[in-house]
Structure formats: structure tokens, C-alpha cells
Design goal:
The protein is mainly α. The chain is built from ten helices and no strands.
């Protein structure tokens, strides 16, 4: 327990160090360049405080609602496909070659098709994020199951596990670390897809707000949107880390 607390304290100090370094470098660079395109951190945070309630918060909540819906769908679908392919060799033979074919393709390129098929509303934005994110779950979960030691199967047979007990006590714990890693990697990719989608077919969302501020040369407002996007991403990561610690206690004991 004490080692875990020390580990958490070190991580917090590392995060604080990184934030301070970025703020110092940002402040020095903005003063050195002395240009309106790079406002100081103070000007940015003042703009954030002024615009937060009326502008920034509504747009950010809309974007993160879209993101969370897409992540929920992608993690459920991708996780289930990965588990099925890992457990059943027949499903693996049918699905994994298709996944391998589409994985290196930038799925954001399909956004025009989604806009044609599903319109300019919320559905197309969510679907493009799902299309980008779902592959991040299938392969890691599938590989986590395939890499289970053969001795686990022998132990399960010795304990007379049924199919549900095998899944709950062996397969699911094996998948969870890969699942959380995939979820963390997916956030950035899904946000990138959302950023593109909100600027192609939307008048709401934090990406639209940032690019709209840029088009009007309102650089403090633009940077305020970028900083808020980073803060929200950090909060989401912190929540995922907390859930991972609670759901994978056997990993935390190694820390």
C-alpha cells in the first residue's frame, strides 16, 4: 500500500513538473516572439475565464458527449469482437484478416461517405469516431487472449471450470489491461477524427470553436479552447487510470 502511494505521488510530481515546464516555455517563447499569434499564458487563461460559461463549456460538453458515446460503442463492439476471435478460432480465421486489411487505412478518409450515408448530424460524427476507434480494441484484446499460457487451460480443467467461469476468471482478467491500454490510445485518435468532423459538418463542438476563433484571428480564445481540450483530456485519462487501478488490482500489486 505504501509503495503504491509513493508511486502515485511520483506520478503526480511528474505531471506537475511537465505542466510547469510547458507553461514556463510557453511564457518565455511568447515574450521572446512578441506576436499576437502566440499570446501569453496569462492572456489565454483570462480569455478562458471570460469565455468559459457562455462559449467554451457548452462546446466542450457537446464534443465530449460525442466522444464518450463513440468510445462506449467502439469499446463494446471492438472488445466483443476481440474476445470472440480470441476464444473461437473459426471467428479468428474469418474476422482478423479483414481487420488486418483495414487497420493501416486512415478511416477518417471515409468521412465523406459517412456524411453522404448518414447526413450532417450527430450520427455521422459518432460513426467516424467508432470506425477509427474500434480497431484499437479488436487486435489488443484478441492478442491478449491468444497469449494466455497453455497451463491456464489445464488449471481451469483441473478446477472443472465451465465456460462462464473460464471467461470470468481467466479471459476477462487477461483482456482488461489490453482493453484499458487500447482505450487510452483511442482517445487521441478519436478526438483527431472528431476535430476533423466538427470542422467539416458542424457549428458546435470545441473543434469548431477553436477553428472559428482562428478564422477571426482571436488567438487568446483559440488557445483557450486548445488548453481546455488538453485539460479535459487529462481529466479523462485520470478517470481511466482510477478505473484501471480498481478493476485490475493484481497489476497494481506489482507496482
Amino acid at each position: 500500500m505504501q509503495m503504491k502511494q509513493q508511486h502515485d505521488r511520483r506520478n503526480n510530481l511528474k505531471t506537475l513538473y511537465a505542466v510547469l515546464i510547458v507553461l514556463i516555455a510557453w511564457s518565455l517563447l511568447s515574450r521572446l516572439l512578441d506576436t499576437i499569434v502566440l499570446p501569453t499564458p496569462r492572456a489565454t487563461f483570462e480569455a478562458m475565464a471570460t469565455l468559459f460559461v457562455d462559449k467554451l463549456l457548452p462546446h466542450t460538453l457537446i464534443s465530449y458527449a460525442r466522444l464518450l458515446i463513440a468510445l462506449a460503442i467502439a469499446s463494446l463492439v471492438g472488445g466483443l469482437i476481440g474476445i470472440i476471435c480470441g476464444v473461437y478460432s473459426e471467428a479468428e480465421a474469418l474476422v482478423i484478416p479483414i481487420v488486418d486489411l483495414f487497420y493501416p487505412i486512415p478511416r477518417i478518409a471515409f468521412l465523406p461517405l459517412f456524411l453522404i450515408w448518414f447526413g450532417l448530424g450527430e450520427v455521422s460524427k459518432v460513426i467516424v469516431m467508432v470506425a477509427v476507434a474500434v480497431f484499437y480494441f479488436i487486435l489488443p484484446v484478441h492478442r491478449a487472449i491468444k497469449q494466455l499460457p497453455a497451463s491456464y487451460q489445464l488449471i481451469a480443467q483441473t478446477l472443472d471450470f465451465n465456460r462462464w467461469q473460464w471467461f470470468y476468471h481467466v479471459v476477462l482478467p487477461a483482456c482488461l489491461p489490453a482493453f484499458f491500454t487500447a482505450l487510452k490510445l483511442t482517445i487521441g485518435a478519436a478526438l483527431a477524427a472528431l476535430f476533423f468532423a466538427e470542422n467539416v459538418a458542424s457549428t458546435t463542438g470545441i473543434a469548431y470553436y477553436i477553428m472559428n476563433a482562428w478564422s477571426f484571428s482571436n488567438y487568446p480564445a483559440m488557445y483557450a479552447g486548445i488548453v481546455l481540450l488538453c485539460i479535459m483530456g487529462g481529466i479523462l485519462f485520470a478517470i481511466l487510470n482510477y478505473l484501471e487501478q480498481k478493476l485490475t488490482p493484481w497489476l497494481q500489486e506489482r507496482v
